[in-house]
Design a protein that fits this description.
The complex is a heterodimer of chains A (about 280) and B (about 300). Chain A has about 280 residues and is mainly alpha-helical. Chain A contains 13 helices and no strands. Chain B contains 13 helices and 2 strands. The two termini of chain B are about 40 Å apart. Classes of the chains: A mainly alpha (about 280), B mainly alpha (about 300).
């Protein structure tokens, strides 16, 4: 009898806890998602509606806001610049970080610990610190005000964290996998390319999402290194857009949406791999 | 000679694998860092000749009230957001680890703000905080809680807290994913054994979950601490620019103002070096703890 009561109590409180979990989770989701939905709704309103109808849907969605914002802030070239710089940064970070991370994870060599900490230092260097000296290095190399200068600097800044994440992933792989390859006569490098690389998709997805996000969203370094309007990226364009057209908020929101929506779509598509990669990084970190 | 040859044959390949990363990283991050240290001993406006003035820049910095106030704000910012993010993320992860429906939806939705640029998040929230047209004050009016209506970004007493909230909002999903993966790695049998021994929910939580996610907690907490120190520039710059009356000034915004607006590049670099040393202390803690923990496991 008493046992039955206990069991029922457990069951009820389980249901109760679940209800509590749903309530809290929905409240949190409201907080995280609603501002983004609100941005999308706001981007479709008339300036007048934007102020009077704060909460609801626009009466008639004004898709023209997107076209006008695109033209006025000249977002086309900025979008392309952002794409080139993000892709370029990844083209440096992915091969360099994965080779280095593999060496740190799987090989023993003098100085491996010190070199690994040397890369981790980049997590501790305040972004403002290196900006001006970096600019003078870029001038010294004669590549000032070019896309490649920004790509190299952003790649260098992102290498540390990428190595950190990938090393953790490689550490989590069982040793037997490459040992088999080595027995089959591969050298470490070809074992890496033939055996380790194909099963490391989650690690690459994590680094692509992280470095990609960092680069796509980067404002500070870009604003210092890029001096001409035609090389500007989206974040710089947006910041100068507020300065110039402060009055038209729906158009500003349209341009914020243009910058955000592609990333959200990529994240939703890649999240399974991404979370798996992050998992190993956190546990083995 | 023979020894060197052997060394190269044995390790050459490994060093070759790391070399490209070392080169780029040294040229664009490490060298500028040393260059910054060098500049910090000079008077320099960024254009004309540098003039060696020894430790004078550091003396100026020590007398700079605004800098120390900004440093205080930075510390407050770093600790408040790190604690809030990790505590909230931990409990959200516990909730999400329950056997509930829509799990992927909740996880994706909580992570959504992580994908936004600071520039976007900052502009969005500046507008939500707008005293007249913003969502927050309108909501408070709607539920008749007018007493809580604030000038969220214009009142020097609360502006920094308003910005901190945005930073927490943006990152909580990231830390939640970290904790979730840590919690899911705990074997179910441990909880069952505890239940048989008569442990309640809270006891399981504090005696099993909390200690076993320690490794994740350390990584997560120190990532958020160092992150809050080195990268809160964009958010503060977009939302308040450090105002009103320097009340939201953080070290990075003041360093940038000093270097660019007041053209005191040497002094700006001196501030940067002081800040780097402070962050380094936390970094060394991180390495120490994560190393020690790995050995114990």
């Amino acid at each position: 009898m008493a046992e039955k009561k206990m069991a029922r109590f457990e069951r009820i409180s389980d249901v109760g806890l679940n209800i509590l979990a749903y309530v809290i989770l929905f409240a949190v989701v409201l907080f995280t998602v609603y501002p983004v939905i609100w941005m999308l709704l706001g981007s479709l309103k008339t300036p007048n509606e934007f102020y009077t109808n704060v909460w609801g849907f626009p009466t008639v969605p004004l898709w023209n806001n997107y076209i006008d914002a695109w033209k006025m802030a000249n977002l086309g070239p900025k979008f392309i610049n952002s794409l080139i710089i993000t892709a370029g940064t990844l083209a440096f970070v992915l091969p360099l970080a994965s080779l280095a991370a593999y060496a740190f994870a799987k090989m023993k060599f003098p100085g491996s610990n010190i070199l690994f900490y040397f890369f981790l230092l980049s997590l501790m260097i305040p972004r403002g610190v290196t900006a001006i000296p970096t600019f003078s290095v870029v001038i010294g190399l004669g590549i000032q005000n070019t896309r490649i200068s920004l790509i190299l600097v952003l790649a260098a800044l992102n290498l540390g964290f990428a190595i950190f994440l990938m090393r953790a992933y490689f550490l989590s792989l069982p040793k037997s996998i490459e040992e088999a390859a080595l027995v089959d006569g591969c050298n470490p490098i070809s074992a890496f390319f033939r055996v380790v690389l194909p099963i490391s998709k989650p690690a690459y997805a994590t680094v692509i999402i992280f470095t990609g996000l960092n680069t796509w969203n980067e404002y500070f370094m870009s604003s210092i290194l890029i001096r001409s309007e035609k090389l500007q990226t989206l974040p710089i364009g947006l910041v100068s857009f507020i300065g110039q057209y402060q009055t038209n908020y729906p158009q500003l929101f349209a341009s914020l949406s243009i910058m955000t929506v592609p990333i959200v779509i990529i994240y939703i598509l890649g999240q399974k791999q991404f979370i798996e990669g992050l998992t190993k990084g956190a546990i083995k970190g | 000679m023979k020894k060197t040859m052997l060394f190269i044959r044995k390790y050459g390949l490994v060093y070759l694998m790391i070399l490209p990363a070392i080169i780029i990283y040294s040229i664009f991050v490490i060298y500028p860092m040393f260059k910054g240290l060098f500049v910090s001993f000079h008077r320099w406006d960024g254009l004309s000749e540098m003039k060696w003035i020894g430790l004078n820049n550091y003396r100026f910095v020590f007398k700079d009230q605004i800098f120390w106030n900004a440093m205080k704000n930075t510390l407050l910012f770093a600790f408040v957001v790190s604690i809030a993010k990790n505590v909230a993320a931990f409990f959200l992860a516990i909730l999400l680890n329950r056997n509930i429906k829509l799990r992927t939806f909740f996880r994706t939705a909580t992570f959504l703000p992580v994908t936004l640029a600071f520039v976007v998040a900052g502009m969005l929230w500046s507008w939500m905080y707008n005293p007249i047209f913003g969502l927050i004050n309108n909501f408070l009016k709607l539920v008749h809680l007018e007493i809580f209506i604030q000038g969220w970004l214009s009142d020097p007493k609360i502006a920094l807290w308003s910005i901190m909230f945005v930073d927490i909002w943006k990152w909580v999903g990231f830390h939640m994913v970290l904790f979730l993966t840590g919690i899911q790695a705990i074997p179910e049998e441990l909880y069952e054994a505890a239940r048989i021994d008569g442990a309640g929910r809270w006891q399981s939580l504090f005696h099993i979950t909390v200690p076993l996610v320690m490794q994740v907690t350390i990584v997560s907490f120190l990532l958020s601490i160092t992150g809050a120190f080195v990268s809160n520039y964009d958010l503060v710059y977009v939302m308040t620019g450090g105002g009103p009356f320097h009340s939201t000034e953080v070290a990075l915004t003041w360093i940038v103002s000093t270097t660019t607006r007041y053209a005191a590049v040497g002094k700006g670099n001196a501030m940067s070096m002081i800040m780097f040393l402070i962050v380094l202390v936390f970094g060394v803690f991180q390495m120490y703890f994560s190393q020690r923990n790995t050995y114990e496991m």
